[in-house]
Design goal:
heterodimer, A: about 475 residues, alpha+beta, 8-stranded mixed sheet, 9 helices, about 20% helix, B: about 450 residues, about 35% strand
Chain lengths: ~475, ~450
Amino acid sequence: MRELCDAAVDAAVAAGATYADARVVVRRDQRVSTRNRKADDVTDVESAGIGVRVLVGGAWGFASTRDLTSAGDTALRAVRFATASPGRHERALAPIAPARGTWRIEVEIDPFSVTVDDKISLLLRAEEAMQHADVKVTEAFASARRETKWFASSEGAATEQERVECGAGIDATGVDDDGYQVRSYPSQHGGTTALGGWEVVLALELEREAPRVADQVAALLRADVCPPTVTTVVIDSDQMQLQVHESVGHPTELDRVLGAEAAYAGTSFLRAGDAGSLRYGSPLMNITADATTPLGLGTFGWDDEGVSAARSDIVREGVLVGWMDSRELGGGGFMRADGWARMPLVRMTNLHLEPGDGSFDELLDGVDEGIYLETNKSWSIDDKRLNFQFGTQIAWEIRNGKLGRMLRDATYTGVTPQFWASLDAVAGPEEWKLGGLTNCGKGQPGQGARVSHGAAPSRFREVRVGVRA
Amino acid sequence: MTALEIAHRALELAGGDAEALVHVERSGMARFAASEVHQPTLIENMIVQLRVAANGNVGSAQTNSVDDDALRTLAERARAAAAPDPDFPGFAEAAKPADVEGWDEETAALSPDEQASRAASAFDVPLPVYGFFTSGATDLALATTNGFAAQQRLTDASVRVLAATEGASGWAERTSWRVADVDPPGAAQEAADKAGRTREAVTVEPQRFRAVLEPYAIAELLQWFAFSAWNGLAFLEERSFFADRLGKRVLDPKISVVDDRTWDLPRPFDFEGTPTAPLALVEEGVGRAVCWDRRTAARAGTQSTGHAGPPAERAWGPYPTALRLAPGDAESLEELAELVGDGIYVTRVHYLGIVQPREGVLTGMTRDGTFRIRGGKIAEPLVNLRFTVAMPDLLGEVPGLTRYTQLCGQSDFYDERYAIAARVPALATASFNVTGVGSEPGL
């Protein structure tokens, strides 16, 4: 595969490219799911192809094909596309030492060595443990991915990387005349996924958590609706991960700040000159981007333009101090593509809210009256990443530092900098959890990215909850 | 080999009961920002999805290698993935899908140079533009050992244009299976004209407004409502708004909705081989039907309506992908504004989220052209607004719809290229619940 990449790069340079890189990606994805105690969906998808990116006269071109025997022709098509799209300015890439070497993740249990039967058995046991008179639908799912990627560039880069990811989760759904209620473990979005082998799935202990998930759905069907009010909220790790993703991750992608996503995913309320001075939130807010996080879906050896994995501060003590960017934008280390048929884009790696101090109970201690929100259910945020509205699967009243009655249909809404300014406590390292999302959409044609976030439960003051239609 | 010949070859090498789906894509997208192509993407791919059934077990696997060795390996992987499936309805039997138009030689032949030049033809407006021009040619073939065999060639082309600067933005798009119908300069001019009217936007107090929704806005809202409302699986599991409401008048009598894949971006058979036909979902406000694939139809004791989705989306259940909202008799958007009297005007919505599917509750933001309506006239521009709406409320009292309709693309082109779109008029509603305010339009 190295030779294919080299051939594509050589062909592009010979055709006039001032820079070229090529990626061959071989990927296998397997997903197994059960629904109402029957096997529901078993898919096993393999894909291989090459993508060639070129710079010609300051314009990008990108072409891709599944036909690995036509790497050279694909490079020429990329050059042709770039030539047909002249830009108005030169694009320069920040200098780096050419990446060379191999990187691979070691796993304890190869997920593709576990039989489909064994996977289904594990899921059915979890479903069995969710059986409850008030539960209408139970689901369990597990997934695995192996991806091998070869990269070469006209600057002399030559790398090979292999990664394995696994994930799993369970959902229980109940329905009554007032709506539907769902509980998930460990997260709503197809469970959670992490870099690692089948041991990642086993560690989730789906069967152990299943009875609680079912019991909570049943209780939600009888719970009161979250009232509309402005109050103190404590948000669990899972929802905080999405809060970080949507209201810090995307707005600090520098390509969005500069308009590359304006027509689709949107822009950012931030401006390029804001780094170093803009107050993003309270001094308790510390956000890091870390492409070296163990188990992180955004962990790699090199990104898709050959920049080594690194850790950097994005927000320090509430002040914006860094961006997620690319070599073209002056830095780099955040460029990833969804497979061989897409162009690399600026993407979050693993973006974390760093832990504070104390336990979850200590967070509650500081609340006379408020709401505790747990597990994402719905999400929406505007094109500048300012006005957001999230719903959670479950909530509880907080009274005098203790959890009280359960609440259903909880939503909360806010405006990003004001919301983060109201952060007045982040729980400590013992409460910090890592979760992996596999459905982050960006780019046209659309690309899904896999990214992890770590966060501990956090407390915010004066938040509007209970938005209704 | 044609896509259908590859599908037959995959069946032959699989042996036993099987279904082979082949999808071939050749596409180009010239994506632009600040009136400059910045992300041009050319894709050539072919996938083969094989499902096998034996002894009560069903398994599936997919590859994008199509030589005989790869297809034999594919069959082995599908058999290895087989699991007990007592509800398996069997593979599709012989049927003749309708003849549809959907292949345009000019669109299929567009070169990268032409794709780039059509994108560039959107740049000649007073404001910087952002968006893309794309065209693609796809072949979809499906064959089963039960005798179904069909192939469809489809072309599609779209331009989407955001004209934007600090404090101002406007939006327009065009979609068709014929590139001749897609007019980048026209879309750019529409977007730029709209943007020019959005400067110095003011805020409003959140409240329930009467509103005019342009086709771009109502198409996306309707498509998101459709994900669960007319989804047969959601219906069976009582997550659908129509779960206990079929046969009842639940929307304004002016609302009739059909899912029709026989024109616009036609799809004469679904992804498991059921021929498609127009399906009336709502007639004059009365819920009439939801969508079924073979599996959910068997559970419901009915027939598939031809709504099996592509393999990657099959687990979501069958939902409509070619919505057509019946037009009304208003001649213009201005006439709809007169019907609203006092309210707001929405060009486009952004980042919808499903809050409560059973009641059809969605949240999202307006963008790229939100205005106040006063005295029946479109008035001052507004900042972007957060809304939280129950779609049955929004469609429950509809003062009017335009006579004209527009095809609005609903594909963001993730994974394989399956272009879908909704054809809708502009709509006036008596209930659009604004629950928050955002920032001014523009960059």
